[in-house]
Design brief:
Belongs to the ParB family. With 633 residues, the protein is α/β, with parallel strands linked by helices. Among the domains are: 101 residues, Alpha-Beta Complex (Conserved hypothetical protein from pyrococcus furiosus pfu- 392566-001, ParB domain); 149 residues, no CATH class; 163 residues, no CATH class. It contains 27 helices and 12 strands. The strands form 3 sheets. Strands 1-5-3-4-2 form a 5-stranded mixed beta sheet. A 4-stranded mixed beta sheet has the order 9-11-12-10. A hairpin with a 5-residue loop joins β11 and β12. α1 packs across α2 and α14 runs antiparallel to α15.
Length: 633
Amino acid sequence: MSTHFEIDVAKLTLSTRYQARKTPGQVSLSELADSIEAQGLLQNLVVTKGKKRGTYEVIAGGRRLQAMQTLIESGRWAKETTVWVTQVDNEQALEASITENVQREAMHPADEFEAFAALVEQGSSIEDVAARFGVSPAVVRRRLRLAQVAPELMQAYRNDELSLEALMAFTVNEDQALQLQVWQSLDQWSRNNSHAIRKGMTQGAITASSPVVQFVGLDAYHAAGGRSYQDLFAQDDGRGLYLEDVALLERLAIEKLQTVAADIEQEGWSWVEFKPAYDSEWMNFGRVYAQEGEYSPEQQSAIEVIDKSIQAIEAERDNLGDEEEDHVLWRRLEQEIEKLGAAREKIEIEAEVWTPATKAIAGAVVYVNSAGDVQISRGLIRPEDRQRASQLSKELGQSACLGSLPVPKTRPVHAERLVRQLSAHKVGIVAADLATKPTIALAVLVAQLARSVLGTGYFAYGGFGLGVKLKHEDLRGNAPDFKDSKAAKAMQELRSHWLNALPTNEQGELSDDVLAWALEQDTGTLLQLLAYCVAGTVQGIQFQDDTKPTELDRLAHTTGVDPAQWWTATAESYLGHVNKEQLVNVVTEVLGAESALPLAKMKKTDAVQQAQQLLADKPWVPTPLRIKTQTSH
């Protein structure tokens, strides 16, 4: 229940118990005081009983109270001035403060996080708070988790030293001491890097999406007493749940693998090893191969069915277009092909024949693969068995089906640390030399960028010794009509020009001779090719209207480009995608209200066509295409 009455300003104090807003608003107190003096108090202050008889604490409207106190202190208002207030019970005070502040000038998010936490501390359930403020319980839980970060981090957030995304990263683990430890360990550039923060906060833990977790199972891990914690801001794909007891997880995985390994041992192998993940040491093992066995009628029939299915899916995949839904279907078909291929490989393995001689010199390894499934590799030869395997191969000839043997271990001439040290010097020497040869540096840079932009397949990912990479935005994916635009055609013409000018191989693809070609060119040619390569890296796709200038606008101002010379408003490019009111606004802006008036009375399709005709030769572009100007302060 609430009551309304008039009271002296002198009897009001700013509440510290129930004031949700702790971060100052954007409007200065002097401006607010001027407004109240001119117009009076337009909205009641919300108060609750103070600790001292006859006084009241302002729980909503604290800045207005401070502004009025300023007016009284400066003599602009009389000391006996009274104002109207709305009183609420103490039990409802914090909730009223949150509601009033949310509905007026937006609270700082930090205030909101702490205010929601205070409501829960006073006895409200998460569901009750969610219902009162029209949000989901998940939103309330996230705000409560944010309210629990170390006070030093919350203050850094209030001071704009820490982004909200970075603050969310710190909530992965509720240990405030660890939060501060990670914060203090990061340099100023990494303190707003959410990836670096999460990495520091989750050291020693493993995500639920890990293959070994998929293999063991979350239920089994928790049943064994394993602890975990949840990143409330992560996607619900297993990457947001972290398992702390890695040793326990590995023990459970080994116990499961031990059962599989016991069955493999029954096959008669010389040895069997099992580990939760693939051991890179196994790469040094040699191999002995199985002999092909004959398929049973059932196996042969199954393989024929699989092969026909794969052929049908491949035909469907190869006939797909280039639309977004086609890309989605392509990925699904690829997954089906992989699944069928795995089934075929399983049948092939079942039909293999391992002779006693091969098993006598080889073993098998059992581990968890990247999909979280058990993987078995048979026929491996340990380095210490190299001589025995070689001797047996001579005795048995081809019957052992012996493949590669382990490379004998030899001590390297240079230790890894020394190799790194010397190669670092080599990098520095080449760099210092290149810095004095700008013509060669330009040629190498252009050659590497041309390889990235115009090359195909693996060749496009290589380089000529520079750590320079290009980033391209998906223009066609975001603008399906871009391929037919004037800009796209201009870039395609340039691409064709350079592919014709640069050296290619027999397949018509860019060849490795591009560096030799670049070294022979004059500076003007290299700069033209550099401009084309760099142009493809222009960034700036946005997802909502924004009046603030961006880096893309700064670049556009630098080049002096006029978008109206490159783009025209048509039904497909713009007019058919906005409502009729916007059509009228556009024509009014370009040609005046009189020309736009008939459109308001037309059907949408007719209005679109009429607007297209009226704007056909007019240099107009919508706001997302306009070059914004940086304002000065």
